[in-house]
TrEMBL record:
The chain crosses the membrane at residues 242-264. The lineage of its organism: Eukaryota, Metazoa, Chordata, Craniata, Vertebrata. The gene is VSIG2. Its main location: membrane. Keywords: Disulfide bond, Glycoprotein, Immunoglobulin domain, Membrane, Repeat, Signal, Transmembrane, Transmembrane helix. Residues 1-23 form the signal peptide. This is V-set and immunoglobulin domain-containing protein 2. Residues 311-320 have a biased composition (Low complexity). It is a single-pass type I membrane protein. It comes from Papio anubis (Olive baboon).
Amino acid sequence: MAELPGPFLCGALLGLLCLSGLAVEVKVPTEPLSTPLGKTAELTCTYSTSVGDSFALEWSFVQPGKPISESHPILYFTNGQLYPTGSKSKRVSLLQNPPTVGVATLKLTDVHPSDTGTYLCQVNNPPDFYTNGLGLINLTVLVPPSNPLCSQSGQTSVGGSTALRCSSSEGAPKPVYNWVRLGSFPTPSPGSMVQDEVSGQLILTNLSLTSSGTYRCVATNQMGSASCELTLSVTEPSEGRVAGALIGVLLVVLLLSVAAFCLIRFHKERGKKPKETYGGSDLREDAMAPGISEHTSMRADSSKGFLERPSSASTVTTTKSKLPMIV
């Protein structure tokens, strides 16, 4: 008997399994799903298998940009019981309960912006053969743009360039931005205006006095729009030079005032220094003792080597003469 090729055997075996109803097949929409904020989302999931006592259904969720391996369960059905779990447990349910007739559609009420992501519908029914037991659905919660913030940077004098920016912190899908000029003034020529609808930036070059005015940015998506306004004032270059010169003069005056104050303070501090005087306890080499005149001072005789002490009026004493007694 000739041996059959391997691929032929595998194909035949798969066909027998499908005919016998032992294959698990999960089907979900191929297009992404979008639901407005606060509404109810229905995530359609159907399957085909021979439901038995081991049948199990699991719905799980993974945030945008993360791998499927980081998904976490939000609902179980096993042993005939339904088990919502996680932060969405109070808002999730099944369209048909029990989901034993081929319909495993999930209902999610009052959708939040944080509900945007990928949902996994997985059917497990051993010992059925698994051809495709997992389906993925991408859900986007539609959110209108929040009020954008307008800002400006750059040189606003004649001949200069400036950038006007606009951004909304919320909005799904991401809003597009459009700048318009208010009033009866003409819109800047296309050659001097470059607008980016994705980033919300408007660049104005070769400014003139007629570029002054109020500009409005409108953020729009399929859920609505919001706007902010900004006033641009273009000045003559000479005004900038005058302002710079005035600031320079003020700085010079300030520096001169500080220098004058320091000089006056220095002279005052110098005038307060005490003069060199002799105190009452200081003795000078040529000072006279009290009560002694120059004539009664002691003189040194350099030739004789001794001191000569003249008589002084203060030291002269008188003696009484003794008279003989006559008897």
